[in-house]
Structure formats: structure tokens, C-alpha cells
Amino acid sequence: MANGAPFERHSELNCEQCLKRCEEKRAPGGRYECLSVVYDYVRSVCDLYSVTGNTWPQCLASMKGYVYF
Question: Is residue 61 over pLDDT 80?
Fold first, then answer.
């Protein structure tokens, strides 16, 4: 995601574990609420974002080895 910074980064997780982390951060009341995930299949890195990437100034950038949820 361009022009956005993750509020949490986890390494050595598989994609399913990454999505579960986001689900755990979906409940309102926490400091940040997970609204999107970028998972790096090459390095097994999970980035959680409190933005969707669909509104300015954030935007989605297609990159090989990454998937966006």
C-alpha cells in the first residue's frame, strides 16, 4: 500500500495466521482497528492497516509476491 504505514507488522506467519491477527484487531475499542492486510508471500511478513487503501492519500500498488485483503 502506497502512502500508508502498517500499525502492526508480524514476521514468520502464514497468510491464514495473518488474517486471523486482523480479525482479532477488528473489535472496536482498541487503539487501532484492522481494516486491511498486506501479506508478503516471499518473506512471510504480515502488515495490518487501519486504512483500506481505497481513499486518498493511500492507494494500492500491485507488487509480485504480495496479496491484499
Answer: no
